[in-house]
Amino acid sequence: MSSSLMSVAIDARMMLNAKKFCFAQFRDQSEFERVQNPDEICGNRDPLLQRTAAGRRKIRYTTYHDVTIPILQELLPLAGMTNVSGTYTANQTVTTCTNIIDKIGAVHKYTNSRIDKMIIRGQAGTMPISAQCEWIADDEIEDSGTSWVDGTVDNLFGFTGSTYEIATVDIDINAFVFVIDNRLVEGWNNSATVTDVSAGPRQTLLATSIPYVAGTKDVYWDNRDSVAGVQQELIFTNGDDSCTINIPKAIFVPKSPSIQGARDEIRLECTWEAKRQSATPAFNVVLVNT
Q1: Which residues, in sequence order, are CB contacts of 288 under 8 Å at separation 6+?
Q2: Per the CB 3.0–4.6 Å rule, which of 27, 74, 92, 136 could disulfide with 62?
Q3: Is the Cβ–Cβ distance between 94 and 80 less than 8 Å?
Q4: pTM across the whole model
């Protein structure tokens, strides 16, 4: 009887865009298609080996990270933003990188990786603000001889260091989700690996939960029937380090507050969609690292 050591994830590591960063989870969702015709009749219940061929490789995976300034500096340009002196502004491009994952049994390299969707979220409690990235890659290959280069380690962000305002008015929140959905469009043509990936119609959302009281009720009533757009600013900090998400013109997606039960707080769940106004980009993110 042969024996082997048990693999545990503590020694796993990830290099994102040639720099090694901490990650909370790596979830592989790749598919390797098989070409066959299930409706074909061959006079036997069992499918024939010769009636199967290799199909498309759909290389997809999701990474989860605690948010820090250094990792945002890597992720924001890949999510579709241009950096000018620490201000990352929405652009029209799709940027690629190579990501390398040591899965202990083997090191996997994901070539020409692109961020299809990026989600930054935070909520009251003990977990830090996190970033979830959904990636599309050209291919997955076994890697050897990689030199592992450490990325910069810096402060993470707690939700308690967050502030939020609508039209310059401070509003209390107990959670937020900021979503950049690039809606990438893939094409294969006559190849097993993807041959084209183009930028789709991006959708950017900011969702928050605020108390529904006399002081905040007008967030609902003033914006329910309006499509003029309203300013949003979300800031999270750790000491002198900060990340500011700016949406100059956000359209409210109305949803009237529900009442859950006698002991539950009545809250207004707000979802806002970022819109571009003429030459003003739909959103930008400002990083301050001291």
Answers
A1: 86, 240, 241, 242, 243, 244
A2: 27
A3: yes
A4: 0.93
For 27, other C-beta atoms within 10 Å of its C-beta total 11
Residue with tokens 């910069």: 152
Sign for the CA dihedral angle at 156, 162, 164, 168 comes to negative
User: Do the strands 25-28 and 31-35 form a parallel or antiparallel pair, or are they unpaired?
Assistant: unpaired
Question: Which residue ranges make up each domain of the chain?
Answer: 14-32+54-143+154-288
Cα distances (angstroms) measured from residue 162 to each of 124, 174, 233, 237 = 10, 10, 11, 6
User: What number of other Cβ atoms are within 10 A of residue 158's Cβ?
Assistant: 16
Query: Residue 72 is encoded by which pair of tokens?
Result: 């945002």
Q: 171: alpha, beta or left, given left = phi > 0 and alpha = psi -120 to 50?
A: beta
Please state, in angstroms and as integers, the Cα–Cα distance from residue 237 to each residue in 74, 90, 261, 290, following that order.
Answer: 18, 22, 34, 11
What is the pLDDT of the chain when averaged over all its residues? Answer: 94
Looking at residue 255, its amino acid is K
Contact 130, 121 (CB under 8 A): yes
Judge whether 102 and 85 are in contact, CB under 8 Å: no
Furthest CA-CA distance within the chain: 74
Tokens of 59: 């290389």
Per-residue pLDDT reduced to its tens digit, 253-262: 999 999 999 9
